[in-house]
Amino acid sequence: MSTLPEGYRISPVTADDLPRFRHVLELGFGFTGDPDTVATIPFSIAYDRAVAVERPDGEYAAIHGSYEFTMPVPGGAVPCSGLTWVSTRPDERRRGLLNAMIDAHFERSLGRGEPVSALYAAEPAIYGRFGYGSAADDVRLTLPRRAALRDVPGSAALTVRLDTIDAARHDDLVHSLHAAASAHRPGAVTRSTPELRARFLADPPAWRNGAEAQRLLSVHTAEGEPRGYALFRRKEDWGPAGPQNKVTVEEVAALDAAAAHRLWGALLDLDLTGTVESPMLPVDDPLLQLLVEPRRATPRLTDNVWVRLLDLPAALEARRYSAPVDVVLDVTDARLPSNAGRWRLTTRDHDATTGWAASVSRTDDDADVALDVRELGAAYLGGRSLEAYARAGLLEERTPGAVAQTAAAFGWAVAPGCSWVF
Ligand SMILES: CC(=O)SCCNC(=O)CCNC(=O)[C@H](O)C(C)(C)COP(=O)(O)OP(=O)(O)OC[C@H]1O[C@@H](n2cnc3c(N)ncnc32)[C@H](O)[C@@H]1OP(=O)(O)O
Asked: ipTM, 2 decimals?
């Protein structure tokens, strides 16, 4: 357990504390919120999930919050505490405040019955020490105008509609399609509260960086049923060779391949365009399969969500497995000793759609695989191979063949990933 400097204390946050809470966010991240913009954007953290470290003089020295998510995992879903807004004042850095806040976050999450925590890392070097593992990657593509796509039946029958985003009017279309499109992708949490939804669709001029207002492209069946949408904006660029507008796509959600094809076909064929920047895409996104010349799309790979198992048996039993396995894992967990030690994971009850369920219980039997909770969190969503960690020397195989068998069980057919940064 970490300790705070003398006189500092973990403190709850109320609506009255919001200005000083925001102030620490601005000091930590290095920006100044425009008051007119701040006034229009709802505070997206529930007050009982916002936490501060208060100094003896009553100022806040550090803050964080969390979102209540139901996170899709292989074959199911799990209550998840989405850690966010982590910030320590620059003049209070490296005094153990984040350490203390992580302890508070784990304790509070477990108290609420959330066996898993997830986050986006501002810098990837920060969170491994706390047992978070990088559980997914995303890819961003820079695409030339008119990049060709393979045909998809049904795409041409869909109609395309263009609107300027209006948070109130488009809330239902965007968020119900997003939830439906995300349901079976591990890690793809949805915007779970009205405040988070409104914040995501907010488009104040201060956030546009010289580009146009946020546009909403939606595709519909002949009967008018929406099947997908893209949020994007263009920035004008007139050079000596003519127009070279940049199209930046923030999010695409599609219920099927025809909708994805129709949306991307329209986005890649906007007039006056030079390049189209894709949003964060899962590494198996349909667009990557549909591009006729994928080499012309310049990819950038980045870590996406990080996952921390807080209640190891509950977390491992909440997901399903791709192959049968009976393995004893010897887990190290310096921060949550209740997870440390030997656990037997045994699959049971195969279901054709969701795979194998598993029971997880303590055991005194010899371990087959020894690993840290960080690697278990990384493999949890099915997108990282335990075999790869063994080859990198990050876990130990004690029974020959056990790592390959466990890796096959943990792997999943749909790559993990989340489409928005929380
Ligand atoms: C989920 C999110 O919200 S991500 C956003 C994170 N926030 C930011 O990046 C904003 C700017 N940075 C900050 O506010 C702070 O520097 C924080 C929050 C990253 C760290 O806060 P601090 O109170 O200084 O952390 P603390 O003193 O508890 O140190 C924790 C440990 O992490 C390490 N650490 C902290 N920041 C970093 C970093 N950026 N890179 C590498 N290591 C780091 C420390 O060295 C320390 O290691 P140790 O326990 O082995 O000694």
From this structure: 0.97
